[in-house]
Amino acid sequence: MPTDSMNELTFPAVAAGAAISAGPSEIACEVMNLFDQFRNPLLRYALSFGIPVHDAEEIVQEVFLSLFQHLQLRRSRKNLRGWIFRVAHNLALKQRYANQKMLGRTANECMAAQNQMDPSPNAEEQFSSAQRRERLLAVVYALPATEQSCLRLRAEGLHYREIAGVLGISLGAVSMALTRSLARLIRADGR
Amino acid sequence: MKLGDKNMRSDDLHLSDSHLSNEQLLLAADGELPARQAAEAQAHLAACWDCRARMAEIEGTITGFARAHRQTLDPQLPPIAGPRARLRAELAGLASIAEISPWRTLLQFASSRLTAWQFSSAARAAAFAGLALLTALGVGRVLSRHSSPHAANSTSVAFERGAVPDRSLTPGATRRVTIGDVCSMPHEEVVGEVSTALRQQVFREYGIVDGRSNDYEIDYLIAPGLGGTEDIHNLWPEPYLSPTWNAHVKDALEEHLHEMVCAGTVDLSTAQRDIATNWIAAYKKYFHTDRPLALSSGLI
What we know:
The structure holds two protein chains of two kinds. Chain A is mostly helical.
């Protein structure tokens, strides 16, 4: 069962005590361990903003270089996972805005592009399963941005407190967003 | 607001008081209820088929979404090995500098971070180019003894005696200008002559005796065309005779940056910072080359 310590999620490689005297090489090592752990979840999250893979990968690199700086400055090690996702979230928003501005695309066009990137169902997959996936994703894409982010961050394993920190919303708002979006998904699922 | 409070009910869902709301079910499933409420929820679920059925429905939809999320995005993920190697190299560079001087690392980091972000196509080059800043910071000799082969290679290419100014003497200085100000006239017309008194002051600062002063041009670190001022902090003796990275090459960079700023492809502040941080690294970044272009074509 969760307690308040959820908010202070730490990782074996970055235990608070060990970090106080950590030198730059140790910090770089810690950052690499976190990269191994979170690169794919972060990349998925960045991609869900509809930005190209190349840009998403740059964002992930940027996140971990910022993390190095964060740890070098001996800033808080509490909830590093939440911190990492928050930086990625902000960079992804910025990148999406820049891309849209550059290409003159609207959010809807980006979303359509993302839909087109969806891989077609492979031969072994049941047709009904692929249909279900498309149906669920269509609902997700139609959700407000915050609700989409809540769902995707939760899917990447973040606790509600961490999601609240990433998106800058209250704990209650996370809970409500997830409940509301799941209710919509359930309705679509039941059709 | 605390999780599990009754005032958190969803408008979409209306449930009788005796059953758990969908929100409570989700909180219970996600392990987000306080211990006492979680125990109550478990007890209710054990007794109530209706709530268990709804719980199963929620779990089923979560499974469906989680699978769709992964199946859509996972095929787009490139292998981790390349990005991992790149990050490792960049961190090794930053860590080796930080071993020498922590605050300088952060200064250097801020520079590479900004450039990597704004010029994603040149991000890799920009981050590595940050190492060349070491020469400007006067720590190149220390680093060359360091174990990092990456650092040694980068600095040896970039470093020529006097090619970049002593950053403690010449950090760069700018005046308050707008894009309109710097773009209202051609770059070459903005550059003025440095007064004799100031030239001598710069030579004295750098310990250059009169007899050798003809070997140098007193140059603006941040060109006037980019908002640089005629200030001793923005002037340094640039050797005419540097075989590779000399005043002519820097002039080409200044002109190029001026054009880019006026075309709106680079922020004025970014151009100023990049040229002040390490103009050789800036040249490599903006011309996408490791050596002066004119040198390659035999013009210098």
